[in-house]
Amino acid sequence: MTATRRGILAVVTILVLLALGLGVGVVVGDALGIRTEPAVQMQPAAATAAEVAAAVPPPEFTTVDAPDTERMRVALEELTDAVDAASAREGEASLTVTLLPTLIAESEAADGYTVAGDGRGLRIQATSETGAVRAVYDLASQVRAGLPVEDLVGTHEASRLLLRMTDLGAVGVTPDPAAWEAGDDYSHASKAFADVIVPEAPYIDEAALAEAYDDFDVFLRHSLANGFNAVAFPGFVEFVTFDGAPGGPVYPDGDDHRDKASALLAAFAPFWDRADELGVKVFLRTDMLALTTALEEHLVERFGSLDTENPQFWDVYTAGLDELYAAAPALDGVLVRIGEAGPVYDVEGWDYYSALEVTTVDAVRAMLEAFSAQAEASDREVIFRTWSVGVGAVGDMHTNSASYEAVLGGIDSPALIVSTKYTLGDFYTWLPLNDTLEQGTQRRIVEFQSRREFENFGAFPNDLGREYQYALQTLLEADDRVEGVWVWTQDGGPWRAGPMTLYLKAGFWQLYELNTQVAASLARDPDADVTAVTAAWAREWFSDDPSTVAAIVDAMSVSRDAIAQGMYIEPFAAQRVFAIGLEPPPMMWIFEWDILTGDSAVLDVLYAIVRDSGGDPEAAIEAAIADGEQAVAAVELMRETLTATDAATWRGPEMREAFLDTLDYELDTLRLLAAYRAMILHQGQWHDTLAPGARAAWDADRAAFERLAAEHVETYEGDIDHPAFNLTAAQLGVERAERDAAMAWLARVLLVLAAAWVVIGMLAARTRLVAKPGAAAARATWLSSTRPWRARESTLGMLELDRWLLLIVPAALLIATRAVQTSFLSWTHLAVIIGAWAVFALVLRLFVWNRSPWPVIAAVGGVVVLRCIVTLFALSFTGPGGYWFAFWTDPVLRTLYITVAFALFAWVFVAAGWALAAQMRPRRATGFVLAAVGAGLLVPSVVVGLVGLESALTLWNDELGLLPWGLARILGITTYLEIPDATPWAAAGFGLALVVGGTLLALPGRRRAASVAS
Fold first, then answer.
1. Angular region, 265: left φ>0, alpha ψ -120 to 50, beta rest
2. Which positions ≥6 away from 219 have C-beta within 8 Å?
3. What b/e string do you get for 590-600 counting C-beta neighbours within 10 Å, with b at 16 or more?
């Protein structure tokens, strides 16, 4: 082949490789899918000033004439407790409660009533016991709010929403400070009744069961007083023997699951009976699939797999429901979630677990049709949650109207209720109202969360009343099928990674009780005065004094602004952001739930969105920084307002202290966050603009953050009421950022040296440089990397020093470049990369064997130098931080870099084969290179497979800081990104195939072998 033809072929090859690199760049960009779109924000009404009058002492109800039922008895006890808790009482009064007959069939859930009389004698009339009982609870609430009891005189319409459900609160959960102290238990399992259920027969600790029953009774009474009438109780398969399941028995002889189920059913049926006795519905709350080992084996044996799309598959579960309802008639139905499951919800050592298997439209529809039919036949109800995480229609039916219709369209059972969070996503601020609640033909309920998990688990004042009101009013106007609410008083997120606030039991739970009470009030009357509800809450728990109550209401009125601006960065949070096929939440800089993140992916994209949120990038950045300072000012105002109150007017010094302590905690935290916000935005600005002033601002912010971080940890570490934020990821990010400038200078030095090596190689043949030590080596690497067919001739007659430089210079440059690229912090990354290259080189050397290795070393080394130059150039501006900043935020630069880098990477192997082809047949040269590439892929893949992909990615990410540090600790990188666990083994298999194929290709041909034999 002539030199011209070789040159043309080389150019064509390079163009093909560049085209492939461009394709890879486009694919990477599509896979990242980073984009934003405006989000339509909720528009709650503005806060109104509280008009708080002096508390009116209630009368003693000395004469009471009411129906003799348990529901009424408990309601009257609540009224007595409210009167006894009042700071003063005035006069006596009578109370008469009458149930009126009615000719019109009316739902027992309807709770309308009429009150007549005055402050000395009240007469309640209702057409249902529910209405009569509700009137007594309202009378108790009036007393606790310090309002005149006669204000209730008149007609009270039935509640707008008749189903008002809560979670189970903290019933059965032990307040164990040791379990909360570390703050790193991200399990979502409540471990409710862990003291009740024991592993061996008789499986129940009777003393603990009695305590839990009393716990449950207290919770029911409190919830009824707040206005709720249903409860979600965890469990399902734990109570079922599945003796009547098709193809049974599920549990073979000797399996203790049957005895456990009987024991647990006997233990907890009285709980459900008690709820029924008090007029509270009970729905068993379960994930699907809910499994035991034996149940899973039974299902797989019958259906060949967990075939959730098969309608007959669900007959096993409906048979379990039939069994359960027959044994426990007090149960009203089942509440099903399919979107989250797995180890994070399971209890270690307990063979009841969940699996994420209902992931297709057909599977969901098969499940719902089976469950709905069973509910209709048994006169029960099934509540289906649209909360789901994943790909496709099932994955986003919670937020996508088209997906909702695809999954649920046409399923119109009267026994089916669909439950959906009111936000378009999880319970975050800045998310739009969930418009999927405005569609469908099913009955609907709306989910609210009192103890906001993502806003420090309710540890900060956080009055959600106006937002709840806007949501309910808007949804009820749009969809008349909304008939209830589900309010989470305690649940959501990890139980032991935040403050040890357990509803009604431990910590400052009264703070988020406001959201529970306002949600119930709005469910009954969406037009209720939320300021008045807040004042009633303040009077019930904190003070009778009008000025103190008004101060608390005023402080709470700005609490949302402090949360919305202090814990979120508005220009980012107010957008819908999409990445990697998912929609990240608006609070990514604080990664679930208390981890201040330090990864480049989140922080760089966040900066870019902030920068582009206004006309002037610098002004937009400074405005976002100012928002954090304003949040601090809001908390300072709240604290000043409450500090000014008279301590003697509070119900007790402990309540005032708790409120001020939580404000101190919030103030400390928001100051820390404000400093961090300024630091990360100025860091992004430096990478973006290269402005020295931005770097100086970052340095000042860093010093402030590190000082505040040290103070925060010193003050709050180990405090179970006010736990310190997890700053590990943020501090790792600071450590990397501190090295950026130094790494940029190192990259520049290496870039100059690498460029000098290439220039020497280019000029050596035409100048006297060729006689200098090393010049021949430089010339050989240049020639071999650009014209690999000349590799052999370029290395002939070399001195020993030059030959070694052919190897040492590229190897040293590769190691140095990778070390700089990782800021000398990722030895894992370095070991994998260098290890793969070493295996490639070793295998290639073994194949070459008795032939000179220097031509291929020159070719490979020369391209490696060129590849390093590209990387060093990208690193030379603002170091590794700037390198990744461009990758995440600049699609053009990212695609250009990937195009060139990929082309050079592929050219390494083309050049290696071409160089070898001068010493042997092209077929064998190609085989040698393929086998070496396969070995270079095989060995690291096997190592990663043995270590575990999740462990390997976690270690790698911890050192590089590309994705959120908390991702591995909470969700798992492979789970979140849906990377199969078998990926390294698949890569190893591909590498092995290359080794085998390359080796076969490298075998001597028959003609060659015959000539050798002759």
1. alpha
2. 168, 169, 171, 231, 503, 504
3. bbbbbbbbbbb
The strand pairing partners of 217, in sequence order, are: none
Give the whole-angstrom CA distance, residue 439 versus residue 965.
Answer: 38
Whether residue 854 is preceded by a cis peptide bond, meaning omega within 30 degrees of 0, is no
* 655: amino acid identity, one letter: M
Which of the residue ranges 278-287, 333-342, 709-718, 754-763 would you say has the lowest mean pLDDT? 333-342
Q: What tens digit of pLDDT does each residue of 626-646 get?
A: 999 999 999 999 999 999 999
Cα atoms in the Cβ-side hemisphere of radius 13 Å centred on 380: 26
Place 107 in a pLDDT band, splitting at 50, 70 and 90.
low
Q: Which residue intervals of 890-921 are DSSP H helices?
A: 891-917
* Rg, the chain, Cα only: 35
| Mean pLDDT over the full length of the chain | 92
- In this predicted structure, the answer to whether residue 738 has a pLDDT above a threshold of 50 is yes
Inter-helix orientation angle 692-716/653-689, to 10°: 150
Separation in Å, CA 779 to CA 6, 758, 759, 803, 916: 19, 8, 9, 11, 18
Q: In which band, very low, low, confident or very high, does the pLDDT at 614 lie, cut at 50, 70 and 90?
A: confident
CA-to-CA distance for 196 and 203, rounded, in angstroms? 8
> In the structure encoding, which two tokens stand for residue 440, read together?
């469908």
**What gap in Å lies between CA 749 and CA 746, rounded to an integer?**
5
Q: What is the pLDDT of residues 856-887, one digit of tens each?
A: 999 999 999 999 999 999 999 999 999 999 99
- What phi and psi values does residue 660 have, to the nearest 5 degrees? -70, -35
Asked if 144 contacts 82 with a C-beta cutoff of 8 angstroms, the reply is: yes
Partnered with residue 58 across adjacent β-strands are none
Whether the pTM exceeds 0.85: the reply is yes
Kindly compute the dihedral angle of the four CA atoms of residues 652, 655, 657, 663, in this order, to the nearest 10 degrees.
-150
3-state class of 419 per DSSP? strand
Q: Which two tokens stand for residue 326?
A: 């027959």
Calculate helix-pair angle for 546-557, 530-541, nearest 10 degrees. 120
**What is the per-residue pLDDT for 447?**
98
* Residue 100 per-residue DSSP state: P
**Do you know the residue count of the chain?**
1014
Residue 662 has pLDDT above 50, yes or no: yes
| β-bridge mates for residue 433, sequence order | 423
